[in-house]
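Input chain follows. Return structure tokens only.
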Amino acid sequence: MKKRIVMLAAALVLLIGCQAEEPAGTASVPPEPSPTAGVPESTPPETPSPEQLLAQQPIDDDHDAFLVDTGGKLGTLLVTAERGEQDPESWFLGYKTTLSVWNPQNMGAPIQTMTVLVEHVAFGHHEVVDANFDGYMDLSYMYFVGNQLNYWYLWVWDEEAGQFVEVPEYREISGPRCNPETEVIDGFARNSGAGDGVTTFHRWENGELVCVRRIETWWEATDMVIPETEGTVFIYGIRVEDRIDEELTQVYYKEFPPGEDFFDEQAKWEHLDYHGE
């Protein structure tokens, strides 16, 4: 009897175990895939290069854009110019123009803006030059142009401040030319077709741009008449001023007799190491 009970209990255990197993030939159900499975991870968009940003800027009668490679930690910057309304009270009838300086690595807002007056014909003329000879590039923008005269704004790059700083003295130089060998900025404002006018030479002293020599030449009509042609006789003159004790002081003056001009004498004084005979 005991033997029969033991056999029945064993059979019951086997039956329960068989019911717990999965039916033969039935595969397990795989887990549901993730909705993002197989989708590649997104990568942040590439930052456009300064050249690409420049190509995206409008350039027309009222807009201008150019790059300035400062040579500093911020590298190449984008400068845009937008012309606004005319200021009838300015002596050259300039237009209010906004220059904006942008860091291509962060185009959310300009790092600097400058509002100036620019003549209609001068708008769009810019120059990138190391005007203070410190190894960093600066930006210059023309604000007036005439038959020969041309005047510019200048902002030099301040590496410590990370901004451009204007040099007001530069506005007074006509046709400025920066010579890195002599570290002199010269300019010429012609008065007439006779070649007379004002020639200036500027240097940097203690971070300021100062005029170290000014040469003024002129001609005047006289009451004398050339007998052969009955033409008017002209006399020519020259005045030279040098910077002495922080002021321009006259160091040479001459009016030439009829038939002589100032050109040879002027050429001598255009060499800054010349101080007269």
